Amino acid sequence: MLKVGTGWSDDPDSLTTTQEALDMAVEMLDGHPPRAALVYAAVDLDLEVVSQAMLERFPDLLIAGCTTDGEIAGGEGFLEDSLVITLFASDNIEFTVGMGQGAVANPQDATLTAVNQARAGTETAPSLAISLLEGLGTNIHHLVDGLRTALGADVPIVGGAAGDQLRFEGTRQICNDVVTSDAVVVLMLHGPLVVSSGVSTGYTPLGQPHVVTRAEGQVVYEIGDRPAAELYADYLQQPSIFYPLAVRDESRRSLVLSSPLNFDAETGALHLVNPVAQDSEVQLATASRQEIIDAARNAVGQAAAGFGDCNVDVALLFSCAGRRATLGTRTGEEYAGIKDIIGADVPTAGFYCYGEIGPDIMNGPSLTHTNAFIAVLIGSPES
């Protein structure tokens, strides 16, 4: 049995908002004691107060969480400046959490520490790992590589990188009573589970591929031996952060996208959310707002098609902060377009993140994504 409850509040007081979101989530559990929690929080909330209030009410509760670029809650859809709490209860599924610090400088050590801490809580192999990562200054590809190495190829990994409402000043992660930055947090579920996911961006490449001829980390200096910004000028007349770079990768089904943060007016260098390696082949990518909204429905449809006949106990959603920035006032349409597929009675929670994690094919390896919408459906075979 897996029972899940979600609750939310947008009260500006950290204690009040925690109590309100917790009350709502607890009511959905129908008396089953919660054993683990996911917390998605607005960056201005006091997360020490949030975690303390949760642990005062449920001292043995395992907590994994992070700050966001926006939250998603079933029944409400897109939220800002809010707190969303998801509680998990079960009589046959075990839950463990772990945290590793130093994600920026030592991604392999941080991911291994987080996974080993979580594994130490049980001898049962994990069926699913939900990871919440530092979203600033990290190479999310290295972090996901580390998680795959530590967990093994057979464990699906889903999740997202923490956000801070596009301020780019600092994100935070929560593991039980610890609130920190520069960390990797994992919540693992061990036991009989059915998990299915889907991913879609809505973006399509423009024109011909071009070779990155000079790049270092998250900065692309030259494309085709010209300042990177000139590629944007060729297609758009001027640079635009709303057109990510699509990196060609024949080993995966989905596009590898990296969104621009800014352009250097003097050098024409392009500063990106995620690194793009030198010698990569890239294209500009484009999508209308409607195509971005339709992609969310496509992702949920993929997940539903692969789920089988079990009942869905919870839907977890991870959408890119770049999508929210592009959608603007239409952001709420992402959830509005998918709730009929998920079902009104299925607990649903998610957040807008600085990078998304999930497989792009059924039973495939978990990969990093940007500008993507990832839907994860979870259920118990006995449900």
UniProtKB/TrEMBL annotation:
The coiled-coil regions, if any, are none
Domain FIST: from-to ranges: 33-227
- A Pfam family cross-referenced in the UniProt record is FIST
Q: Which domain of life is it from?
A: Bacteria
List, for all copies, the residue spans of the domain called FIST C-domain: 228-360
Alphabetized InterPro entries for the sequence: FIST_C, FIST_domain_N
Its recorded name reads FIST C-terminal domain-containing protein
